[in-house]
Design brief:
Blueprint: H1 22-28, H2 42-52, E1 55-59, H3 62-66, E2 86-90, E3 95-100, H4 122-134, E4 143-149, H5 151-155, H6 161-165, E5 167-169, E6 175-177, E7 191-192, E8 197-204
Antiparallel strand pairs: 1-2, 2-3, 3-8, 4-8, 5-6, 6-7
Length: about 230
């Protein structure tokens, strides 16, 4: 499994898999009672690693790739949401879901906004992790904030030509990229660095389904993204 990851963009020196990597220890510590134990020292280390580890690859998620042949436009957002997200892989083979900052923290959603284009709060992901831990549920994957250099840590390390094609330099000389997707296929929905640095949230991945089979329980409050009807 880990040998297959050697095809990702990497430094000249071959990358070595480390069994003591924080993301591996996080996966091994998952139980039926929570994603991590109350006294686990692994979470703190995992948050530090996601904040600082060098990025060696950037790509779409598997959900998005599965939809490439299902519609006329390339997917960046998942079918279960409308947020622009990318998968970043680190030098220790760990990976995280990157959700970029789309607006300032003091901006509020206008009352007349159509919910397809509602504001995307990257810091809500971070707050959800901390609130979940305070309430002692321990069901939300560790999530941390990070300043990402969109040029060096995304554009220059991705092998995906479609992802490369959505980058551009704005009139303000900031490096930007946008989503090609069913809901946000317009450049005005781009996210931009300043000029290269972009704040965002990084959420740790759970083990793959082939390593950790599990049930998926739909949210009872799921909403419909169709104008034709509502969810039951």
């Amino acid at each position: 499994m880990y040998q297959e990851q050697l095809n990702v963009t990497s430094p000249d020196t071959p990358l070595q898999f480390r069994a003591d990597a924080s993301w591996v220890q996080f996966h091994l510590g998952i139980s039926r009672h929570g994603l991590y134990s109350r006294s686990s020292p692994v979470v703190r280390q995992l948050l530090q690693d996601m904040r600082r580890a060098p990025t060696i690859s950037a790509d779409y998620s598997q959900d998005e790739k599965a939809l490439l042949g299902a519609c006329d436009c390339t997917q960046i957002v998942k079918p279960s949401g409308v947020h622009l997200k990318l998968v970043l892989r680190f030098s220790d083979f760990g990976k995280a879901m990157f959700k970029p900052m789309r607006q300032q923290r003091d901006e509020e959603t206008p009352a007349d906004f159509f919910y397809f284009i509602d504001f995307q709060r990257h810091n809500a992901e971070i707050a959800a992790f901390h609130l979940d831990r305070i309430l002692d549920f321990r069901r939300v994957p560790p999530t941390v904030g990070r300043l990402v250099n969109v040029t060096k840590e995304i554009l220059e390390v991705t092998k995906n030509e479609i992802l490369q094609s959505v980058f551009f330099v704005s009139p303000a000389s900031n490096v930007c990229f946008f989503a090609k997707c069913p809901y946000m296929c317009k450049t005005e929905y781009a996210v931009c660095g300043n000029p290269h640095l972009l704040e965002g949230s990084l959420s740790a991945f759970l083990p793959s389904l082939n390593l950790a089979p599990r049930l998926s329980v739909p949210s009872p409050w799921i909403r419909s993204y169709s104008l034709a009807g509502k969810e039951e």
